Amino acid sequence: MALTEDKGERHPRAPLAPWLRGTLVTLGSISVTMLGLLLVTFVIGRVMPIDPVLAIVGERASQSTYDAVYEQLGLDKPIIVQFLYYLGDVVRGDFGMSLLNARPVSEDIARVFPATLELATLGTLIGVFLGVPLGVIAAVRRGSWIDQIARVVALVGYSMPIFWLGLMGLLIFYGILGWVGGPGRLDIFYQDIVPSRTGMILLDSAIAGEWGVFRNAFSHIVLPASLLGYYSLAYISRMTRSFMLEQMSAEYVTTARVKGMSERAVIWGHAFKNIRVQLITVIALSYANLLEGSVLTEIIFSWPGIGSYITTALLSADMNAVLGGTVVIGLIFICLNIFSDLLYKVFDPRSK
Amino acid sequence: MTLLDVQDLWVKFPTRQGIFEAVRGVSFTLGKERLGIVGESGSGKSMTGRAILRLIRPPGIVEADHVALEGTDLLGLSEKQMRKVRGERISMVMQDPKFSLNPVMRVGDQIMEAYLLHNQVGKAEARAKSLEMLQAVSIRDPERVMRAYPHEMSGGMGQRIMIAMMLIPNPQILIADEPTSALDVSVQRQVLNIMDDLVKQRGMGLIFISHDLNLVSEFCDRVLIMYAGRIVETCAADRLHEAQHPYTRGLLNSLPRLDQPRRKLDVLTRDPAWAEVPSVGGKA
């Protein structure tokens, strides 16, 4: 008895507010995940049979130059100390110098990432705005011709190699028909007109009111974005269909019909509300996949994004750039996950 | 006065093994009374209720000479006309409120929606009406319940909410499809009493579908006994114990009774011939 009273007096701390607790837990889980990611990338950087010193000084450097750089990079310290240095640098946003162009990797990433973000965002928008309604209609009219078409569309999306579709797209819509702009983000004529604010040319040109640039940028992005959009549509529409099929056989759907609601209101007003949470996960995953996995598309369309940046870095043994790029992509995955967790709470009252 | 007149109702489902007949030529009428439909699972009692509301989705097929609501054949109506019948004239309470309420919508929104669909009024009026209706089903704190989500409600409360929601447009007929089967025994009677009172007050017709003979004989005026998609017997609810059909007798004998204790309860033995006998007319 006395003991509990004593404890109560010594800790007059009020319990944390739920929202504060939630935020702390989230931040904690981010830091743990990030730490794991950094550890893995660090270890990969060290076990690769690439000598970072040699890559900087070249093969003809004297032993003293070699040793100086060796020390400068901190390679003489114990590995755990090296990791702490690496950690400290990354926290400050410093991924080291690119061995290829001797510029900070963080600057490079800040330049190439918006290009990927622009492409992946447009691709995801296409995938969501076409894929979700297609999936819903396929589920509601199960077995109809529209369901069959949706099935074939998704199957083709799953199974066609993206580089082949990309090349065919370029050949037909750029080479033969001339409907779209070719590779790259802009024609040479339009380059460097608009000051870079966000790094996303569509946004920058819209902000600057340069509609000619906007049109040109759009004609360049529309083909690769549609291609990525098609892939995300294939996935999103299939998942939407199976989520909706499950909901349409639920009893509350019958309740809504008994009330005398129209079929459209039953579908969008009742059933669709119940798949939003699952759908968010699917869309977030597909978005993250496009941000990270559009390497082939970027290479075919000479898109100066993070995918082609990492690929080039990897092929020229520029480990700092590879690791920096990997960490950034990992961070995006984590952020999208947290974002979808937050939306869960908004859309599903049961998760509160 | 006859509210509903069902003549020769069939419900069929095409399957790989041929056509499955869930309901096979059922005829009955419903006035301002409480009609019980009893039978084991698979006897077609739920399908009968759903066929009246035309809730059987393709590939299911509903055929009948007529399903007439005050003289209008429901099977001849367009889907749009049928929507005016659902909720507004015939309504239905289903088995388990855990599944029959939309989990991501507030209770209040779901009740108001039922009222707003059939009444051209503002939100404030619909809200007032919903609160009134929640009070009518003995919910103590209707303001709080309006804001709550279905998962925050107990089963008994959920089913009372369901009843409020289905009665708010003031229908003439309520189909209660096993309304208490998912509920705890202790709240079954409470929920049934509330439903019973409302149905009597409003002079509605009630179709009470259940497998529970005791509940049906207590809360109904007339009983139809269904077996294998047909009506095998019909009688007044208070004369259920005098039922003649061997199936009904078998069901009654397999119930434990306090006043006639037995060491071993009878087991129902089914005669395949029961399924072949034509349906008995269920007209009052």
UniProtKB/TrEMBL annotation, chain A:
Q: Which UniProt keywords apply?
A: Cell membrane, Membrane, Transmembrane, Transmembrane helix, Transport
- Predominant localisation class: membrane
Write out the annotated subcellular location: Cell membrane
Q: Which residues form the ABC transmembrane type-1 domain?
A: 113-344
Q: How does it sit in the membrane?
A: Multi-pass membrane protein
Looking up CDD domains in the UniProt record yields: TM_PBP2
Source species, domain of life: Bacteria
Any one Pfam family match given in the protein's UniProt record, by short name: BPD_transp_1_N
Q: Which InterPro entries match?
A: BPD_transp_1_N (IPR045621), MetI-like (IPR000515), MetI-like_sf (IPR035906)
Please list every transmembrane segment annotated in the UniProt record, as residue ranges: 20-44, 119-140, 152-177, 217-236, 279-301, 321-344
Q: Which GO terms describe its cellular component?
A: plasma membrane
- A single GO molecular function term of this UniProt record: dipeptide transmembrane transporter activity
Family per similarity comment: Belongs to the binding-protein-dependent transport system permease family.
Q: What is this protein called?
A: Peptide/nickel transport system permease protein
* Organism, as annotated: Cribrihabitans marinus
UniProtKB/TrEMBL annotation, chain B:
What Pfam family is a match, any one?
Answer: oligo_HPY
Where does it primarily localize? membrane
Q: Name one GO biological process term.
A: transmembrane transport
User: InterPro entries, alphabetically?
Assistant: AAA+_ATPase, ABC_Ni/Peptide_Import, ABC_transporter-like_ATP-bd, Oligopep_ABC_C, P-loop_NTPase
CDD domains in UniProt: ABC_NikE_OppD_transporters (cd03257)
Name any GO cellular component annotation: plasma membrane
Q: Enumerate the spans annotated as ABC transporter domain.
A: 4-253
Q: Where in the cell is it found?
A: Cell inner membrane
Organism domain of life: Bacteria
Q: How does it sit in the membrane?
A: Peripheral membrane protein
Q: Does the keyword Transcription apply?
A: no
Q: Provide the alphabetized UniProt keywords.
A: ATP-binding, Cell inner membrane, Cell membrane, Membrane, Nucleotide-binding, Translocase, Transport
> Would I find Transferase among this entry's keywords?
no
Query: What Gene3D superfamilies has UniProt attached to this entry?
Result: P-loop containing nucleotide triphosphate hydrolases
- GO molecular function, one example? ATP binding
> Which family does the entry's similarity section mention?
Belongs to the ABC transporter superfamily.
Q: Tell me the protein's name.
A: Peptide/nickel transport system ATP-binding protein
